[in-house]
Design brief:
Elements lengths: L2 H7 L5 H9 L41 H18 L7 H14 L13 H11 L4 H4 L10 H16 L5 H4 L2 H12 L3 H11 L7 H4 L16 E6 L4 E6 H5 L13 E4 L4 H16 L4 E8 L8 E2 L1 H7 L4 E14 L5 E2 L8 H7 L5 E8 L18 E5 H5 L2 E3 L2 E2 L2 E2 L6 E3 L2 E6 L10
Parallel strand pairs: 5-9
Antiparallel strand pairs: 1-2, 3-14, 4-6, 4-14, 6-7, 6-8, 8-9, 10-13, 11-12
Length: about 425
């Protein structure tokens, strides 16, 4: 992926959209590797069209949808391996995202909340995983983290008028940590755990100092976080680790079992091949992270993003978004409809669903906008999930300029394809035969 692509996909929601989702009003926003032994899963069908693993729905309060998507994806892969829920703290990853911006001189005016899959993978490599109960215990049962929005306000105020306004302070990693700890209102016990693993000035990270031993202190390395992924070459499910899944690298992630980002093609044939790759992953129980452009005027009251709805209403508030595909609906060549939410075990039907001339109607995504939002949609086939119609994802839709922190719907000079990319498992993709 080029730097230009990465920057484009790091776009977060506009300020107005973020405030709206946070407040619930108006528009809504955004060492050695442990190699798992290949085993055949017992008691799990690999035929169902809807067999990805569900974890709890959450609601972002700032523009870090990308971390929520990666967390949902990681939780699902882990639950498939362990049969239990691990509630990953998106706040923990957000804390380290801000630390790196401040300590590396990339934040002087305000914190950026936007990011990408590659950014998230790097954070996981360096800082690992904490559960919500171990990082901010008070928010263990909360659907939305109010601590994230209050911490963001506190850090931005510090950058503008407080301690972090001084560039010399921002160069002192111990002082940066202290200011973050205060903004996040971390307990002394949690601060002590972070200090024990990383030191107050972060002179240690998991990828450099804990390659042969576990860090303890409720912090889990990616190589110790069990997942199950699918080997498309052998048609068998693997036991693996999250480290296997995220691989290595910076702009791109590589590795034998690593997931990889692919851009959505421009040709009709290429797009269908891309859809088939996503379908094939879902058939194997593998959820897929997707990045796409939101226009909130395309969101109908039934939680469906519809090109027809957008054409009727005209452009609205826009922003980049990342979610996790868990299901789809398709019309076969013979006219039979395979519905989202209904399992399919007939191998002939599943094979037919992958035919180039089958018509993909929509993908169902797990979102980070909360389960029930009567201010934005009145009903949903599955609370917390949205259906992205193929016509919307293909577009094109008008892209509006920004004015005063929000989309200027009177100035939409260009057209774009809403679907940007997907994070696909090793062995599937538009350039990989299957």
């Amino acid at each position: 992926m080029s730097l230009t692509d990465l920057l484009a996909k790091s776009r977060s929601l506009t300020l107005g959209a973020l405030v709206a989702i946070g407040l619930g009003a108006g528009a809504i926003g955004c060492s050695a590797d442990v190699t798992g032994e290949e085993v055949e899963e017992e008691g799990v069908s690999v035929d169902d069209i809807t067999q990805t693993t569900d974890t709890k729905v959450k609601r972002q309060s700032i523009g870090n949808c990308w971390l929520y998507a990666v967390a949902s994806w990681s939780e699902a892969l882990n639950k498939r391996a362990t049969g239990t829920d691990f509630d990953i703290s998106e706040s923990y990853w957000t804390y380290w995202h801000w630390f790196e911006q401040l300590a590396n001189g990339r934040a002087s005016g305000e914190i950026s909340t936007g990011g990408s899959y590659g950014t998230a993978a790097g954070i996981i490599d360096r800082y690992g995983i904490m559960s919500e109960k171990d990082f901010i215990a008070e928010e263990t049962e909360a659907e939305m983290s109010n601590r994230q929005s209050s911490a963001l306000a506190a850090i931005n105020e510090s950058l503008k008028n407080g301690t972090l306004k001084d560039a010399a302070v921002r160069r002192d990693r111990t002082k940066v940590r202290a200011e973050l700890d205060k903004a996040w209102r971390l307990s002394p016990a949690v601060i002590a755990k972070l200090d024990a693993v990383f030191t107050p000035g972060v002179t240690r990270t998991l990828d450099r100092s804990f390659t042969s031993r576990q860090p303890g202190n409720s912090i889990v390395r990616a190589r110790d976080f069990k997942v199950r992924i699918f080997n498309f070459a052998t048609n068998r499910e693997n036991s693996a680790t999250l480290k296997d899944a995220i691989g290595n690298g910076s702009w791109t992630r590589t590795g034998e079992k690593a997931f990889h980002e692919e851009n959505y093609p421009s040709s009709a044939n290429g797009r269908r091949q891309f859809q088939i790759a996503v379908q094939q992953s879902l058939h194997a129980g593998v959820p897929i992270i997707v990045s796409w452009k939101v226009d909130f005027n395309a969101l109908a009251s039934n939680a469906v993003f519809s090109k027809e709805e957008l054409d009727r209403r005209g452009p609205g508030r826009q922003g980049g978004h990342m979610t996790v595909v868990t299901d789809y609906q398709i019309k076969l060549v013979d006219g039979k409809l395979l519905k989202a939410g209904e399992n399919v075990t007939d191998p002939n039907l599943l094979k037919s669903a992958l035919e180039p001339n089958a018509t993909l109607e929509f993908f169902r995504v797990k979102n980070s906008w909360g389960a029930i939002r009567p201010d934005r949609w009145n009903e949903a086939a599955k609370p917390g999930y949205h259906d992205l119609t193929t016509s919307y994802l293909n577009g094109p839709i008008k892209e509006c300029a920004e004015k005063n922190g929000t989309s200027d719907v009177t100035n939409c000079p260009t057209s774009v394809t809403p679907w940007w990319d997907a994070v696909l498992p090793a062995g599937v993709g538009t350039n990989i035969p299957f």
